Structure formats: C-alpha cells, structure tokens
TrEMBL record, chain A:
MF terms in GO: oxidoreductase activity
Protein name (record): (2Fe-2S)-binding protein
InterPro entries linked: BFD-like_2Fe2S-bd_dom_sf, Metab_Enz_Cyan_OpOx_G3PDH, SoxA_A3
Source organism (scientific name): Desulforamulus ferrireducens
Domain spans labelled SoxA A3: 15-91
UniProt keyword terms in alphabetical order: Oxidoreductase
One Pfam family of this chain: SO_alpha_A3
TrEMBL record, chain B:
Protein name: FAD-dependent oxidoreductase
FAD dependent oxidoreductase domain boundaries: 7-351
Keywords of the record: Oxidoreductase
Gene3D superfamilies according to UniProt: D-Amino Acid Oxidase, subunit A, domain 2, FAD/NAD(P)-binding domain
InterPro entries tied to this protein: FAD-dep_OxRdtase, FAD/NAD-bd_sf
GO terms for MF: oxidoreductase activity
A GO CC term attached to the entry: cytoplasm
SUPFAM superfamilies named among the record's database cross-references: FAD-linked reductases, C-terminal domain, FAD/NAD(P)-binding domain
Length: 96, 382
C-alpha cells in the first residue's frame, strides 16, 4: 500500500507500469472511453491483456462518469490467451 | 441533432484528423469531424506505423519525404504535451531476387533525384546494420536512416487535440449513414444522430469510403484487404531499423517501447471486411520472422490483431474531388501506406479543398485515372 506522499505510485496496470494518478489525469481530461485509455496509455496492452487492470479501470471510469459499471464497454480481448514464444509458434514448420 | 457546418470530415483516423487540423490552421471555420467509433478505430490504429521515404514512385517518395520532415517537428507544430514516439532507426529493405535488385536500383534512382538519403548495402553491410539478421539467400538491401516508426495513436491524438484547439468539433461514436447531394452538389450527411448540412464533405473513411460513396451511386475502386499484425513483449533495444522483405511479404520493427511489431501481407485474402485474427497467421509470421531474425524466437507474442488496407487497383491513394458532385472530396485508398504520408496529405487536401494551389501536384492521384485507364502503380508496397 502506498502512503499519501507516494500516492502517485499506485500502480494500476502492472504490465505497463501505469499509475492510478496517470489514469485519473486522462479521465479528468475527458478521456472516459476504455478503448482510448488503452491506446493512449497502453493500459491493458501488456502480457496480462488487462486481466488485472481492466476491472479497476472500469471502476474508475464508472466513478468519474456516474455510469453503472455494467454500462462501460470493454475492449476487445485478443489472442493468444497467454504469451507464446515465436520459436514455439514457428516449431514444426520447415524453413526454406 | 440536426445542424449545419461549413466542412464535414468523415473518418477519425490520422488522415481525417490531419485534414481537420490543416483546414483549421488555414482559417477555415465550422469544421465537424465525424467518427463511427473512437479515434484511430479503423486502419490507423491497426497499422504497423512504419514511416519511410523508400518508395518506387516519385510522388510517394516526395509525399513521404515531406511527411517525415513534418514528423520530425510534429510535437512542436501541434503543441502536443506527450510524445508521438518518433524513432528514426531507418528501414532496411531486403532483396532476394535479381528482379528485386533491379527494381531497388530503379527505386534508388528515383529517391536520389529527390534527395532521399537511401543507399544500396551488401548482405554483409546489412548485417552490420542489423547484427541478428540472417543473410542466407540475401542479394543485398537498400537502407535509409531517416525512415522510422511513430506511435499512430499518439500522432492522431496530437492532430485531433490541435484541431480541437483551433475550433474543430469532433463527434465520436457517430455513424454517417449516407451522403446527401442535390443538383450536382453535396449538401451534407445523414448520421445516426441526425442530419448535418454542409456544402463541403471530405470522405476519408478508409475502406468504408466505398460504401459511403455508393450512397450517391459513386463506384470507388476500393477493396478492403485484411492484414494481420502481432506484437511481442517489450525487451531491451536491439534493432534499429524496420526490416522489410517484399519477398516474404513482411515487416518487423522494434518500437521505442521495446516491443517488436510485425505483420504479413497475403494477396490471397478474400476482399471483405474481416477483423478476425487467425492462428495460421501466427504460425506463418513466426516461421518467417524467426528465419530472417533468429533471436526473435525467444520473444513472446503478447497480442495479435487485424486491420484493413483500403486497396486501389494501382496501390495508390485517391486524392481530390469527385467529378459530378461539387463540394465532395476524397482522401482514401491508401493501400497500406496512409499513416506515413498523413502529415503532407492533410496539408495538400486542405489546400485543395480551399481551392488553393497545392504545394505538391496531386492530379496523378485523381479519381478519374481509373476511368482513363492511367494506372500509376506503386511497386514498393507489402
């Protein structure tokens, strides 16, 4: 838990090291669209694909906009489900 | 929400936002930009975002050269608070056949005439530029150190914010249903939120421009073609340039964030609106890239996605007016290289729309070239 002095160090997106404060700054500027937050801040673009940060982000957006959590559209979850090495994916295919 | 505007721009990608900014900068008032979803939700946000001057036609070389000069100062020009993450690590274009070698030398001739600092490099020199490159079968390459990569989301955001500061209204999550015209001139657009009357409409909605033009009976020769991309986990910087092989149809770049972004073209793709990713792509991409750049085999793929090229028969954009509909302008058909020429395209389109002389000629990109049978083929596109 961060103390008050270091409140800007509350990491919300662990993969991309994005803090709660950075996210609130964007939300305060009017960026309350999860798709836009993702693209401008890289939240949810890391290896965990937003498994940790997306619910937290949705809560932040809901709080800021007064919209119910269920009405906040989620971003697209993209394959692969888990990070896979290129070498593994290439395995079995003959190189010319 | 029925309203009026002076200019309606359809499409919130980098082209639309660049046109909006350039129009507003020239003093145009009452501009509305309409985007179906969120900014960059179409081709811009799905592109590989490479930026290169190494093209095969003089006009694309010039458009790209001027655009790169603009990218270099874009943050200052647009007063952007963040970074557009412009990295000029160069582009290394690989040649694997005699025919490619010949074409690349031809391209270099065009490029050098225009002052583009590209050069021919031997396989050994290519390996000096990218030490982890497998040069098996490589006949040579061309390299231009001024080419590079830029963050497409940030670049579009920078244009959009600058445009808004100049008074442009940006309407996201608003879909244009059809274009409206009367007596041979454009009168506005009908959206899912009402009608916007306007004497000037600029269509820059990527592949969707075709469907919108069709609402006026205009047949745009645009076909959507799916292209897939993947991104790896970020690692220490190890690759300066974008590595591109027309032979393998692929490109691979390490972005400033540390991730590798790579994609493949497949000419056999069905020409339809398809945003689904496939496992075949993952396998093919992985096989080709680990052959070309073997150490990448250890990198993990984090995400893959698909986007659409808006392809024209000659792989060249269509810029200018549409005959028969006064006030209707088009900037579409970028065939996979729209992002990198967006700064200059926005400027040229603003000049054209305002009836000024354009800083570079754009007549070769006009819509009527297809009817005249004057195709203007760009040889250097993946």
């Amino acid at each position: 838990m961060c103390d008050d002095k270091n409140k800007d160090l509350t990491i919300l997106c662990r993969c991309e090291d994005i803090t709660l404060e950075e996210i609130r700054e964007y939300i305060n500027q009017g960026v309350t669209d999860l798709e836009q937050l993702k693209r401008l801040l890289r939240v949810g673009m890391g290896p965990c694909q937003g498994r940790t940060c997306t619910p937290l982000l949705v809560n932040e957006i809901a709080k800021a906009t007064g919209r119910p959590v269920k009405d906040i559209p989620l971003t697209v979850f993209r394959q692969p489900t888990t990070a896979v090495k290129l070498g593994v994916l290439a395995g079995g295919i003959n190189h010319e | 929400m029925n309203k009026t505007a002076e200019y309606v721009i359809i499409g919130g990608g980098v082209i639309g936002c660049s046109i909006a900014y350039n129009l507003a900068k020239k003093g145009a008032k009452n501009i509305v930009l309409i985007e179906k979803k969120y900014l960059t939700s179409g081709a811009t946000g799905r592109c590989g975002a490479g930026v290169r001057m190494q093209f095969g036609t003089e006009t694309n070389c010039l458009l790209a050269k001027k655009s790169i000069e603009m990218f270099e100062n874009l943050e200052e020009e647009l007063g952007y608070q963040g970074s557009i993450e412009f990295k000029q690590g160069g582009y290394l274009l690989l040649a694997y056949t005699e025919k490619m070698v010949e074409q690349f030398h031809k391209n270099l001739g065009v490029q050098h005439k225009l002052g583009i600092p590209s050069s021919w490099v031997t396989p050994e020199e290519a390996k000096e530029i990218v030490p982890h490159l497998n040069i098996q079968g490589l006949l040579g390459a061309t390299f231009c150190g001024k080419d590079g990569h830029c963050n497409p989301f940030k670049t579009t955001d920078a244009y959009a914010k600058a445009a808004e500061r100049l008074g442009v209204e940006i309407m996201t999550y608003t879909e244009v249903i059809k274009l409206l015209a009367r007596d041979g001139r454009i009168t506005g657009v009908e959206t899912d939120k009402g009608t916007i009357e306007a004497p000037v409409v600029v269509l820059c909605a990527g592949s969707y421009s075709r469907d919108l033009a069709a609402t006026l009976g205009i047949d745009l020769p645009l076909t959507p073609e799916r292209h897939q991309i993947l991104v790896t986990e970020p690692v220490e910087m190890m690759q300066g340039p974008m590595v591109m092989s027309f032979y393998h149809g692929l490109y691979c770049q390490q972005v400033p964030h540390g991730s590798f972004v790579m994609g493949l073209g497949d000419p056999n793709e069905p020409k339809e609106y398809n945003y689904n990713g496939t496992w075949q792509f993952l396998h093919e991409m992985a096989a080709k890239v680990t052959f070309l750049l073997p150490p990448l085999a250890n990198l993990r793929v984090v995400r893959q996605w698909a986007g659409l090229y808006d392809l024209t028969p000659d792989r060249q954009q269509i810029l200018g007016s549409i005959p028969g509909f006064e006030g209707l302008h088009l900037a579409a058909g970028f065939s996979g290289h729209g992002f990198m020429i967006a700064p200059m395209t926005g400027k040229l389109m603003a000049e054209h729309i305002l009836g000024e002389e354009t800083s570079l000629p754009i007549s070769m990109f006009d819509f009527s070239r297809f009817a005249r049978g004057e195709l203007y083929v760009e040889p250097s596109v993946v």
